[in-house]
Amino acid sequence: MTLLTWNHACTINVRAMDDQHGILMDTMNELRQTVVRGRGREEICALLDRLIEFTRMHFWSEEQLMEQSGFPGLADHRAEHHSMLAQMMQAAHRVQYGEAVPMRQLLCSLRSGYIEHIEGPDRQYGPWLNEHGVY
Ligand SMILES: [Fe+2]
Ligand SMILES: [Fe+2]
After folding, report:
1. Cα of 126 to ligand 2 centre, how many Å?
2. All residues at 6 or more sequence positions from 109 whose CB lies less than 8 Å from its CB, including other chains
3. In angstroms, what is the span from residue 36 Cα to ligand 1's centroid?
4. Residue 122: burial class (beta carbons within 10 Å; 0-12, 13-18, 19+)
5. Of 24, 25, 32, 108, which is the most exposed, with the fewest CB atoms less than 10 Å away?
6. Rounded to the nearest whole angstrom, what is the distance from the C-alpha of residue 65 to the centroid of ligand 1?
7. Cβ contacts of residue 128 below 8 Å, gap of 6+?
8. Where do the domains of the chain lie?
9. How many Å apart are CA 103 and CA 105, to the nearest integer?
């Protein structure tokens, strides 16, 4: 399980969103460290909660920007946010209630989910927002 690091493909070119993606990756890395060090369920749950809360705020920020600029792909993007959050909350719930969740596997799927979303749908709204004066 590797650390999440920045690369060119992760840049949206909208400063506030790039900053938020950086915080998301830092939080994911922190969660990874917690798992690798074999910390307890309580600590892992607290970090998962933090990740979910930040993700919720981030998704809302993106949707606001897309809505304000009339981005045509908003409905699909919002649906994807909704499904990502639902999956995260379901996983966090299972961890919280003591199910034997394979944490490394969970982290890998969270990680690839974020990367694919940022490099896919998120990169599509960047140029549109830039054209509408948002950087
Ligand atoms: Fe994003
Ligand atoms: Fe997004």
Report:
1. 11
2. none
3. 26
4. buried
5. 108
6. 11
7. 66, 69, 71
8. 13-60+70-126
9. 5
**Long-range own/partner contacts, residues 72-75 (CB < 8 A, 24 or more apart):** 73/121, 73/124, 73/125
Q: Is residue 44 within 8 Å of 59, Cβ to Cβ? A: no
Q: Domain 13-60+70-126 sits in which CATH superfamily? A: Hemerythrin-like (1.20.120.50)
User: pTM of this prediction?
Assistant: 0.93
Q: Please report, in tens digits, the pLDDT of each residue of the chain (135 residues total).
A: 566 665 666 899 999 999 999 999 999 999 999 999 988 899 999 999 999 999 999 999 999 999 999 999 999 999 999 999 999 999 999 999 988 888 888 999 998 999 999 999 999 999 999 999 999
Separation of 78 CA from ligand 2 center, angstroms? 8
In whole angstroms, what is the distance from residue 112 CA to residue 2 CA? 11
- Cα 73 to Cα 57, 78, 119, 127, 132, distances in angstroms: 19, 9, 15, 13, 15
